[in-house]
Amino acid sequence: MTQKQSKGTAVVTGASSGIGAVYADRLAKRGYDMVLVARNEHRLQALATRLRADTGCAVRVAKADLTDKSDLARIEALLKDDATISLLVNNAGFGSVTPLLASDVDTMKSMIDLNVTAPTRLAYAAVPAMVKRGGGTVINISSVVAIGPEVLNGVYGASKAFVLALTQSMQHELADKGIRVQAVLPGATDTEGWDIAGMPKGQRPPSWIMPAEDMVDAALAGFDAGEVVTIPPLQDGDDWTRYEAGRNELRQRFAHSRPGPRYLT
User: Fold this and answer.
1) Cα–Cα distance, 145 to 104 (Å, whole number)
2) Positions marked catalytic
3) For residues 74 and 58, what is the distance between their CA atoms, to the nearest angstrom?
4) Structural domain boundaries enclosing 215
5) Residue 35: in which H helix or E strand, if any?
6) Count of domains in the chain?
7) Is residue 196 a part of any domain in this protein?
8) Within a 10 A sphere around the Cβ of 187, how many other Cβ atoms?
9) How many CB atoms lie within 10 A of CB 232?
10) pLDDT per residue rounded down to tens, the chain (265 residues)
11) Alpha-carbon distance 9 to 87, whole Å?
12) What spatial distance separates the first Cα and last Cα of the chain, rounded to whole Å?
């Protein structure tokens, strides 16, 4: 067992498996105490036992369904009231590959509740408390479909575009207040989420799929490098730099009192 000086407490949502469980492992090894949030308490307890044995960190389990208002409110209260919390990983979410005409709108509403409403409310709970404490970090797990909404289900793409936009806005507003933010945009990652989304493992080309461990390690390397947006599968980081430069140049051209000439008749 390795003993480490705590860097505060990290809260990871969706921590029972996949990306969230790997984040919990890596952050515990970096010296954070942990709060593990998910619906599956059995898996959370097993992970907590392993992390305590491997790292010596303090680990708490918070069983919660973040689409349930009372459960979500309980995690919000934790983020506001626990003065040890220094890092939030907004990871809980689910996806879909079905097109609009084949999708159930109530399932889409649940996706919005988990992918959009929950991380928004948790960020709004965590950040003011972190500012009062003198600093903190929020890592939001988005997806490459945030900039490619045509690839999978449109509501899923829109939800992840929201997460990216929220993160960029947070960076703009909070950089001078001691708050670090990062959006992580995974590509296809080897997790159970694909089965839930409707594309079981046998239907996915192996060349698409990145192990969750590699994805998280790359995301943390991007965090260490100071990136606000980290895209682990992107092979040339300059591609994103050029994309962002073009976007920022374009947004400078919107302040006009009259429509563009092409619209004048």
Assistant:
1) 20
2) 156
3) 20
4) 9-263
5) strand 33-38
6) 1
7) yes
8) 17
9) 19
10) 444 566 999 999 999 999 999 999 999 999 999 999 999 999 999 999 999 999 999 999 999 999 999 999 999 999 999 999 999 999 999 999 999 999 999 999 999 999 999 999 999 999 999 999 999 999 999 999 999 999 889 999 999 999 999 999 999 999 999 999 999 999 999 887 655 645 555 555 777 799 999 999 999 999 999 999 999 999 999 999 999 999 999 999 999 999 999 999 8
11) 7
12) 74
Task: For residue 208, tell me if it sits in a domain.
Answer: yes
Strand runs (DSSP E) across 57-198, as ranges? 59-63, 85-90, 136-141, 179-184, 189-190
Q: Is 124 a member of any domain?
A: yes
C-alpha closest to that of 132 among 72, 86, 166: 86
Amino acid sitting at position 170: M
Measured from the Cβ of residue 102, the count of other Cβ atoms closer than 10 Å reads: 10
Write the burial class of residue 150 (CB in 10 Å: 0-12 exposed, 13-18 middle, 19+ buried). exposed
Structure tokens at 158: 């829109």
* CATH number (domain holding residue 199): 3.40.50.720
